[in-house]
Design a protein that fits this description.
Strand order of the largest sheet: 4-3-5-6-7
Number of helices: 9
CATH topology of the largest domain: Dna Topoisomerase Vi A Subunit, Chain: A, domain 2
Distance between the termini: 69 Å
Shape: elongated
Number of domains: 2
Structural class: alpha/beta
Oligomer: single chain
Largest sheet: 5 strands, mixed
C-alpha cells in the first residue's frame, strides 16, 4: 500500500537535495527547533534567498571570524576584553557570578546590574563529573584577590547543582574582605536564568541577600 504524502515524513525528505537536508539537520540541532520547525525555516530562507538568506550567511560569517572569549570574565563577544569588561561606566567593585554566558546575557537585559560579570562555564555536578577545577572558580578567586572588589553576587540557577556551586564559592570566599550575596525572591526552584522574564530577574537582583 502506497504511503500518503506527508510534508513532514520521509517522502518529503527524499525530495530535497542532500545540501538542503544538511541545512535542515543543522538547524534542527538548535535549541527550540525540531525537524519540522527546521524545515519550515529552511523553506522560508529559500524563498528569500536574495535577501534574508544572504544576510544570515554574512552574519554567521562575521561571527565565525570575529568571535572570541573574554580573558577577563569568560563572556563571548567580538572583542577581548568584551564590551562589558571594557566599559568604564561599569562598577568594577561588584562582580556577578553566573554559570553560563546565556545567564550573563539574561541578567544584563534586565539593566539593573551595573557591575562586571564572571562566567564559570558550568556548575559543579558529581553526577556529571564536573569538579571545581573544571570551572573558572580559580580565576574568580584571583580577580577578587587582586583587590578593588566589594561585592560578589552569586547568580546561580535555582537548581541543586547551582546552589551547591554557590555554597562552594561562598566557602572559598570566606575570610575575603568582600560581601557575598545571592539572588533571592522571584526565582522558582529549579528555574534557570535564561528562561526567566526580565521582571522576575529584576526582582531577584533587587532582593539579593547576604550568603551565610
Amino acid at each position: 500500500m502506497a504511503l500518503p504524502f506527508d510534508s513532514s515524513g520521509p517522502i518529503c525528505a527524499a525530495m530535497a537535495s542532500q545540501e538542503i537536508e544538511a541545512l535542515s539537520g543543522a538547524l534542527a540541532r538548535l535549541p527550540g527547533l525540531g525537524p519540522r520547525s527546521a524545515r519550515r525555516a529552511v523553506l522560508w530562507l529559500i524563498k528569500r534567498r536574495e535577501t534574508a538568506l544572504e544576510q544570515l550567511l554574512n552574519a554567521l560569517r562575521q561571527v565565525q571570524e570575529l568571535l572570541v572569549e573574554c580573558d577577563t570574565c569568560g563572556n563571548v563577544d567580538t572583542t577581548n576584553p568584551c564590551g562589558i569588561c571594557a566599559d568604564p561606566r561599569r562598577d568594577a567593585r561588584s562582580i556577578c557570578v553566573v554559570e553560563e554566558v546565556a545567564d550573563l546575557w539574561a541578567l544584563d537585559r534586565a539593566r539593573l546590574f551595573t557591575g562586571k560579570y564572571h562566567v564559570l562555564g558550568g556548575r559543579l555536578s558529581a553526577l556529571e563529573g564536573v569538579r571545581p577545577e573544571d570551572l573558572t572558580i580559580g580565576k574568580l578567586l584571583d580577580r577578587v584577590g587582586q583587590g578593588g572588589v566589594d561585592e560578589v553576587v552569586l547568580a546561580m540557577n535555582a537548581t541543586l547543582e547551582g546552589q551547591t556551586t554557590a555554597h562552594y564559592i561562598a566557602e572559598r570566599l570566606e575570610g575575603s574582605p568582600v560581601r557575598v550575596t545571592q539572588l533571592a525572591h522571584g526565582l522558582p526552584v529549579g528555574g534557570e536564568l535564561d528562561y526567566l522574564d526580565e521582571g522576575t530577574l529584576a526582582q531577584a537582583l533587587r532582593a539579593r541577600r547576604p550568603v551565610g
